[in-house]
Amino acid sequence: MTSEIVLTSSLASAERLPGEAAPRPRVWPALVLIGLYWTAYGTVRWMELATFVRFLFCMASCAVLALAFLVWWFLNRRIRLRERLAVFAAAVLGGVVAAPLCQETLGLWMLIFVVPPYVLTSWTIGLFLTRSLSSGTRLVGLTIAVLLPWGAWGLIRFDGISGEQVAEYHWRWTPTAEQRYQAELAQRRHETAALPEGTSSDSLRSIQAGDWPGFRGPQRDGVVRGMTLAADWKASPPKQLWRQRVGPGWSSMAVVGDRLYTQEQRGSQEAVVCLDAATGRELWAHQDEARFQEKVAGAGPRATPTFADGRIYSLGATGILNCLDGISGERRWQRDISADSGVQPPMWGFVSSPLIVEGLVVVYAGGDKGLLAYRADSGEPAWTAAAGQSSYSSPQLATLDGQEQILMWSDHGLLAVDPASGQALWQHDVPAPQAPRSLQPHLAGEGQVLISSEMDLGTAFLDVKHDGDAWTVSRRWTSKRLQPSFNDYVFHDGAIYGFDGALFCCVDLQTGAQRWKDGRYGHGQVVLLADSSLLLVAAEKGAVVLLEANPQRHKELGRFQALEGKTWNHPVVAHGRLYVRNGEEIACYELETKKRR
Fold this sequence. Notes:
- This protein folds into two domains: 11-171, no CATH class; 177-191 and 210-590, YVTN repeat-like/Quinoprotein amine dehydrogenase (Methylamine Dehydrogenase, Chain H).
- The chain is 23% helix and 34% strand.
- The chain has nine helices and 37 strands.
- A five-stranded mixed β-sheet has the order 3-31-32-33-34, with no helix packed on it.
- Helix 2 runs antiparallel to helix 3.
- It starts with a helix and ends in a 7-residue tail after the last strand.
């Protein structure tokens, strides 16, 4: 009998007679939910969390908010049931109509996990403003309130996210950086320098002191040797030699002699580009019909070209491996590592910067074959080595206990293989299936290797020993005080300098203890000028910062705005010049150096 009374009362509350006075709906529960969501959202933006954790929070918080809001909405007896259903239907219909009309960069993921909080916020504001009006008038107001956000999102373009998972938006009708570059490219082409007659790769000199032949320098460790930098930037600031637009891509640069090599996207084509290092003038561009693009990081190739023996070796994001003449750009051979490995381009594309060793070109594809080695002179396959299913790292050459080997860091852990044969020498298992491991293994000293993974490991110090044919690997320490995402670090005088999230820090090399943590430079990159005990940090927003390599304190010595826009690419220092680029610009600055006595 009691349940019948409750049910009758509920139905009567939901279906009041026309003209019958209804109590004013309660809005405070919705205000509390919306307030909690945006407070948590703002708080998380300032918290030091792993990139993937921020991504999970975005999805989970949106789902929780939507579920809690809709439960409250449908149990809100002070609003007629037909009104509740009609407003909900309008919100859903708005999303269905907006999906095909929104700019394609938004994608289904954003329409599901990013836009709904704005719709629910507008819904709550609309309910607050119309709470005293009649049911019919309120229905009109709420319908407008839930449709407005969908319409507003149809006017914008999503241009990726920062390292802190902050989205970048622009009006959809404004030209993209890539479109502006394409408009300038045709005009710039007539200025391309003509190559001297009779030149060939034979006339290009081999790597000399001061060159930067590939990813993170001659040893892939981000260290500049043989150069002493003047640290007083007030008296002698870096001088801009040239600055110009560049196609999208996260490749760094190789600088050999008077030539600079990089990769970029040009519309539907991936391009390997050679520039005059002193002026930025284009000397040649090799283009392949290929385009890789994903919504988070955008379009373009990711790997850095490698110079060796007069040739340039490059890997595009879709898997095109090129061997090009360093002088003319003429193609010597080409392979498709996606076809050779049977692996489709991963979420963020193929990123492996080619390693040249023992007359071989070694790249990482993933899947069952893992590492792929090709003969540098012909492109013929030489060997493969299973090295985990996925990785965004590059093969690293190292010498441990007198034996040269290739180190590869992947979702399975750390693997060492013989460069000539690909035969496994030893491995250290640190399984994290599908973890986006993107940093290099770092050789910290004789028999000492560091590995880092933001999501699960932090940073670990490994001692590697060799006795006959047996290798043993032990872990000296593991530290969560250095959790870099895709931002490599450097060593100097017993200290590690790098990024712990968005903050720069110093960690003791022997213990893993954090010495200091300061300087919010975003997800940038760092280069060590070893002879000067100085650090050059390319900050995520385009600034370049000069720091002391001082384990006792964080001290800035100077800074300037080198570029505009999101800067994830590794900087380069070669022949007294600083080269920086991102997905929109590339620039060259002359650095003041101290003369040797």
